[in-house]
Amino acid sequence: MKLLRSYPIIGAIAAQVVAGALVWLLLMGLAGTLDARGLFWMALLMQSLAAALITRLIGLPVWWVWIGLCFPAAMVLALNAGELPAWPFGVGFVVLYLFFSNTARERVPLYLTNRATTEALASLMQQRGASRFVDLGSGLGGVVRALDGEGRQARGVETAPMVWLLSVLVSKIFRRGRILRQDIWSADISGDDIVYAFLSPEPMPALYDKAAREMKPGSLLVSNSFAVPGVEPSETWELPDRRKTRLYLYEMSERPSVSTDGAKAAVGQ
Ligand SMILES: C[S@@+](CC[C@H](N)C(=O)[O-])C[C@H]1O[C@@H](n2cnc3c(N)ncnc32)[C@H](O)[C@@H]1O
Description:
It is a single chain. The protein is an alpha/beta fold. It is built from 10 helices and 7 strands. A 7-stranded mixed β-sheet has the order 3-2-1-4-5-7-6. β2 (153-158), α8 and β3 form a beta-alpha-beta unit. The radius of gyration is 22 Å and the shape is elongated. Bound molecules: S-adenosylmethionine (SAM). S-adenosylmethionine binds at residues 102, 106, 108, 110-113, 135, 137-139, 142-143, 157-160, 163, 183-185, 198-199.
């Protein structure tokens, strides 16, 4: 649904409310069988699980499912914060920062490419006879590992410390893909056949500028879900997955230019 795509917070709140009502109804039946403490912990567990399930069923991205799962416990913690030591909150903040530092810095949160999209990227590489692939902001590195091997070289660049560390470890264990601790903006993409990004609307204009400056003619910039404003994609793929993922394909020509400039020139601005 378009509303949920634009304002997932509405779905998240609705999931908690519906879960609350369901849990209340269920607990009415258990009221005589458990003491107050037992009821409280049962309610907390059921609220978390039901909210996460509803969030999943209404099709919100997976990180909202985690938020739905953790929110009730976070509320209980917050309401009892006066009685608790401060250090767990500090540790929680540091851990969140290590995973999500790019959310604040680049306005790009962590969410992962799904299997349907990874398969579409593999078939795109095959169709084009592409051998070099880079994922800009590679997260946990799943796409990189899936596309590396069988004559293809896939690498990822990532700066969120914990995300990078985990993805390097997993890639080393499976001996697939190369993950670099490198910023998107300093990555050398001049030799890649396919440059993939699943970021957010915020960096798209700057990303296209970088691609247009650095990528070789005939190579492809592929953006998952976020189009470059003012630039017509060479192709748009809509995938038959649950979230109807859109891949925007921008083929690099000799000297591509951002079409908004052309449009402005045409109307004399
Ligand atoms: C939405 S996630 C996508 C993860 C992965 N590409 C995938 O599709 O599964 C975006 C990732 O980009 C990373 N990121 C954002 N800005 C970055 C930057 N300037 N340099 C490197 N990584 C960045 C974030 O830390 C996050 O892991």
